Amino acid sequence: MSALEMVRDAVAIVLLLLGTFLCLTAGLGLVRFPDVLTRMHAGTKPQVLGVLLIMVGAAIRLQGWSATWMLLLVAVFQMLTAPVSAHMISRVAYRRRHVRRDRLMVDELNSGGGVRDRVYQGDEPADAPPEQPGAALAKSREEDEAR
Amino acid sequence: MTIVYWAAYGMLGAGALLALVRLGMGPSLLDRVVATDTLLVIIAAGLAVHAGLERDPTVVPVLVVVSLLAFVGSVSVARYIGGMLVGSADDGQDVGLPEAAEERAARAGEAPR
Amino acid sequence: MSEPVSPAAHRLRHQLPLLVWLVLVWNLLWGTWSWANLISGAAVALGVTLLLPLPPVVGGSRVRPLPTLRFVGHFVADLVRSGALVAWQTVRPSGIDRSAIITVQLRTDSDLLLTILAESLTLVPGSMVIDLDRERRTISLHVLHVRDEADLERQRAAVLAEENRVVRAFGSPEEVAALDAAGGRTA
């Protein structure tokens, strides 16, 4: 084994270990963080950096172009698709109020106006109408005034 | 080399285990979607680590499938939960849906970490 | 574009990048370059684009090499730096700081540029796009590590700087001029 190969293997292994460490932090953050949005930061982000590192490490170790191209393709797919799924989930999470307000410093998306009817916006999911529209409306007004 | 094997698979396994913990704990469906997503990514990472350490390119096509599956799965569940949320409402919120477990916990004064 | 172009040819020219990309993916999936793969890939790509047509991207774009390089460089640096930061926040005993949802008024008005901006913002750990109001050109982000108002301001400035780099890398001359008029820095 020549010196060059040694260096290459060492770099690849360091990259692989860094990537696996980021996967570990993903699991850790998933358990430790307080709400869906912050958990998404921890959970979906190793898709980018960690998987990228692991792909580069594996591509260095694997000989042959075919596997390298396919790993590149996986990396590109991840970079294109991870933001889309993250955005879709976070949007639904925000709209369904899976947000810990007490952990937010500011919420500028919601500070635009005063009291507002938040029960019927016209774009509710058809399969989930409010169970008690009156109570929900009263609660939403109450929250707006308390803010 | 053995140490590298143990470290890599140990960290991946611990990460997957923690994701499974979140998958079991919930509390909301979205948490479970995020946990499943993370779990699939960790599985893909494990396949890539295996391919890299063993110099075994046969699992690479599986990697493509798994990484795409994660995307399709989480997007379809998000769309299912979101129903027909297409237009942006004024303040971007819906009411009348089941109260989020986080809000209930926050109101009860306990802070589950 | 003075000569009359038939709608089909016009559409084909707009979809050419997509076709090339699909053929490329097909070849990468097979793992080897060969004429059979190239031809079958072209057939599949044509079938896909004819059966499942997509709306065309409005407003052509160009790629300037040097600003693109700067955009990619900043992007990778951001990726590594905030990746390390988020990883540190997950493992440190005190947990995370408070998070925030901020909205930023953007200056560009192009679907393509906004898409690139939102994708790159979401890819960087620590910030995640929640909503994008297309009409008012505001983007809403959930940012992870904020301690005080100065942090919020820094995050907003970072978003605007990212927008600046994206427009300078991929925008048309009119968009760059509009950015300059709107007070974009030449950073």
What can you tell me about this protein's structure?
- The complex is a heterotrimer of chains A (147), B (113) and C (187).
- Chain A has helices at 3-32, 36-44, 49-61, 65-95, 133-146, and one strand at 104-107.
- Chain A has 147 residues and is mainly alpha-helical.
- In chain A, helix 1 (3-32) packs antiparallel against helix 2 (36-44), helix 1 runs antiparallel to helix 3 (49-61) and helix 3 (49-61) runs antiparallel to helix 4.
- The longest helix of chain A has 31 residues, at 65-95.
- Chain B is an all-alpha fold and 113 residues long.
- Chain B has one domain (2-85, 100-107).
- In chain B, 71% of the residues lie in helices and 0% in strands.
- Residues 84-99 of chain B have low confidence and may be disordered.
- Chain C is mainly alpha-helical.
- Chain C has two domains: 7-51, no CATH class; 65-181, no CATH class.
- Helices cover 60% and strands 11% of the residues of chain C.
- Chain C has six helices and three strands, in the order αααβαββαα.
- In chain C, a hairpin with a 4-residue loop joins strand 2 and strand 3.
- In chain C, helix 3 runs antiparallel to helix 5 (149-170) and helix 4 crosses helix 5 (149-170).
- Chain C is globular, with a radius of gyration of 20 Å.
- The two termini of chain C are 35 Å apart.
- In chain C, 33% of the residues are buried.
- Classes of the chains: A mainly alpha (147), B mainly alpha (113), C mainly alpha (187).
- The interface between A and B is large, with 86 and 70 residues.
- Strand 1 of chain A pairs parallel with strand 1 (99-105) of chain C, so a sheet runs across the interface.
Provide a compact summary of the structure.
The complex is a heterotrimer of chains A (147), B (113) and C (187). Helix content of chain B is 71%, strand content 0%.
